[in-house]
Each structure stands twice: as C-alpha cells, then as structure tokens.
Amino acid sequence: MDGSQFFFTEKATELSYQDLIFMLNAAGTTLAATLFSLLIGTLLGFILGMITTFKIPVLNKLPYIFIEPLRNSPLVVQLFLLFYGLPMLTKINFSKWQAAFITLGCNTAAFIAVIVHASVAAIPQHQWESAYALGHSYASSFTHIIFGQAFRIFIPPALNIYISQLHTSSLLSFIGFMEITHAG
Amino acid sequence: MSSLYFGDVFKNADVLLRGLGITFLISVGSLVLGLIIALPVAFMRNSRSGLLRFPSSLYVEFFRNTPLLAQLFFFFYGLPELGINTNAIVVAIIAIGLNTGAYNSEVIRAGLLSVDKGLIDASYALGMSPLQSTVYVVLPNAFRVAFKPLSSTFINMVLGTSTAASVTANELMNSAVVLAGNVFRPFEIYSTIFVGYCLLTFTLSFIAKFADYHLISKHGKMKNALKSSVGVSG
C-alpha cells in the first residue's frame, strides 16, 4: 500500500520541465495544423460558396454534393475514411499531416461555403439592381458593391467556425497525430 | 490493394446496427440532460444577481471553449482518480450532455432575450405573477425562436457522439473501428457509416424542419394558442 502510494507521488512529480516543452511542441503542432487547414478551407470554401451564389440553374447546386456530406458526417469518420480506408483500395497513401490538412481543410471549406452563400444572399436584391442600373457588370458589381457588405456579415460566423475547427482539430489525435490532446 | 467488396459489411450489419442503437441512446440521453441543464443556466445567466451569473458563465465558457474530446478524457480518466467508477456510455452521456447543455443554454438565453419587453409588460398588466408570465408568455415565445438553433445544436451533438469512440463507448464509430480491425475492410466500413451518419442527420434535420414549419413557426397551433392566451391580435 505504501509502495503504491509512493509510486503514484513519484509519478506525479515526474510531470515537469520536459513535459512542459513536449506539451508546448504539441500545442504548436495543433496551431500549425489548424491554421494551415483553415487557410485551405477558407480559399476552397470561398470558391465553392461563390459558385452557389451564381444564378446558373444546375451549376449552383453542384457544390452541395461536396458540401452536404461533409457537414453532415463526423470529422472522425472522414479522417478514418481518408487515412485508413483509401490506402486499402487505391495507391493513394497520405501521411498524417496530409490527411489532417485535407480533412480539416475540406470540412472547413464546407462550412465556409455555406456562410459565404448566406452572407451574399443576405445582401438585398436592390443592391444588385442598382449596381446594374449604374452600368456595372456582374463581376464589377460584385467586387465593388456586394463584396464589402457581404464580408462584414461573413466575419462573425466565420470566426465561430474557426474556433470550433480549432476544437475539432483535437480529433486528429485519433490517427496518432501528435497534437495537444494526444500529448496530454 | 483490393477491390470494393461490401459483403463483409452486410454480414456484420448487426454490429453496426447495435452501434447505431448506442449512438441513439447517447444522443437521446445527452439531449435530455442538455435541455434539463440549459434552461436553468439560461435563466441564471440572464439574472441580475452576480452570484447566479458567475457560476453559470463559468460553466458555459468552460464547456464552450474546450474541445469535446478533452472533456470526455477529463471525465473518463479523471473521475476514477476521485474514486468514482465510470461506465463509458454513462460518461459519454454526461460529458456530451454537459457540452451540449452549454451550447443550448446560450441558444435559449438568446431566445429569452428576444421576447418583446412589451409582451412581458402586457402580461403583468393582465395581472400575471412573474412566474405565470415566464411560463405562459416568455417561455413559449422563447422556445419558438430557439427551436431552429436548438435542432441544429442537436444535430451537431449527434455528430459529436462519434467522439465518444475514444473512451471505448461502443457506439457506431467505435463498432466500425472494431469491425474494420476484424474484417480488414476499412474503406467499405467507413464509407458505410459515412453514408449512415449523413442519412441520420438528413432525417433529423428534415424532422426538425417539418416540426418547425407545421407546429411552430407558420401555420402552427402554438402560435394561435399564444395569440389567444396573450390576447394579441394580428
């Protein structure tokens, strides 16, 4: 009894300087993985979201084939499908970092695309019509009139998504990715 | 490398279905726990007394600002050190319930704040006590506003139950991992549960939309009942 007690106290005191460095490294890994995949996700999500705002009948629904499954399934499943599933069937073999970037990035992209669509749709229709009346083309009215207003609406929900993706990145520990939850 | 073969998945469908059952159990348990926690916490966060506001804010901020996985680990590996024996499914329900409770309380709080002040004043003018006004006027109106975001946090929570696989709760994700280890067909199994989760959440969001449209927002009985109970016309 005394021995085990001693064992546990010794175990507890072992948690020290090196462990702190180890945890900090892992925190850095978390940050790096999250930031880079958020960057990928934002760019991809912006492109997809823009396509959904076009008024072209079939094309503007196409991104939803990509978006909806990603929004409606857990990240763990997507991660396992990519990291453990895909190498069994094809020659594609992702490293942990690649799998982390691709899944987190695509997942973020799906959420960002929906936010982009919502924030462009939130701009009243008369803004477009006024722009056309002033002689702007579609592209010009988007960049000069709509974008600025839509971006203001876009920021708060996008920041929410970024923070929740930072939390979600803890799930990368499932594939043995040495981030902070795995390190702890 | 091998070719696509779903035979093993169908042969072992009972394992996945049992996992789906456990996922359902965890989801419903966490939903109930989350709603039970959320309502008082929402009122506490809205209260004027700092004594009530501080602990509820602490709870909400803690659970909203840490990953669910870390919370699950905290409860699953932390509680036994305090001498409390833990069962994976119970821990999953508690952790996910507390997590979703924090999110739900924010949604309900927003709903409570959205209730028109004039409506509350009108209920006092009709001679209602504060309790009556809360039960008959504030809560139904707040619920109507909060229903949609609540359903979306519920769907997020159902997806979040897959995280409970990490603490050996044998729900859908965990049974898929075990099955993938047994029959060694990870792609087929993970794609099956990928589709399974999608179908589950699509069904849930369809039900939520249907309920919102027919019972709550537009043609709902609740709205008419509200009008007659409060006496607001138009």
Instruction: Tell me which protein chains meet in the greatest interface and how many residues each side has.
Output: A-B, 26 and 36 residues
- Tell me how many strands of chain A there are: 0
By CATH reckoning, the class of chain B would read Mainly Alpha
Assembly status? heterodimer
Going by CATH, what is the homologous superfamily of chain A? MetI-like
Portion of residues in beta strands of chain B equals under 5%
Helix content of chain B: over 70%
Question: By CATH's scheme, which homologous superfamily of chain B applies?
Answer: MetI-like
Order of helices and strands of chain A: HHHHHHHH
Question: How would you describe this structure to a colleague?
Answer:
- Chain A has helices at residues 2-14, 17-53, 63-71, 75-89, 96-121, 125-133, 138-168, 180-183.
- Chain A is mainly α.
- Chain A has a single domain (17-183), classed as MetI-like (MetI-like fold, Orthogonal Bundle), CATH 1.10.3720.10.
- In chain A, helix 3 packs across helix 5 (96-121) and helix 6 runs antiparallel to helix 7 (138-168).
- The longest helix of chain A is centred in the N-terminal third of the chain and has 37 residues, at 17-53.
- Residues 1-10 of chain A have low confidence and may be disordered.
- By secondary structure, chain B is mostly helical.
- Chain B has one domain: MetI-like (MetI-like fold).
- Chain B has helices spanning 7-11, 13-46, 50-64, 68-78, 88-114, 117-125, 130-160, 172-183, 186-217, 221-230.
- The mean pLDDT of chain B is 87.
- Classes of the chains: A mainly alpha (184), B mainly alpha (234).
- The A-B interface holds A 68-69, 72-74, 76-78, 80-81, 84-86, 88-91, 167-171, 173-174, 181, 184 and B 1-4, 66-70, 73, 155, 159-160, 162-163, 165-166, 173, 176-177, 180, 184-191, 193-194, 197-198, 201-202, 205.
Strand and helix map with partners:
The complex is a heterodimer of chains A (184) and B (234).
Chain A: H1 2-14, H2 17-53, H3 63-71, H4 75-89, H5 96-121, H6 125-133, H7 138-168, H8 180-183
Helix pairs in contact in A: 2-5, 3-5, 4-5, 5-7, 6-7
Chain B: H1 7-11, H2 13-46, H3 50-64, H4 68-78, H5 88-114, H6 117-125, H7 130-160, H8 172-183, H9 186-217, H10 221-230
Helix pairs in contact in B: 2-3, 2-5, 2-8, 3-5, 4-5, 5-7, 6-7, 7-9, 7-10, 8-9
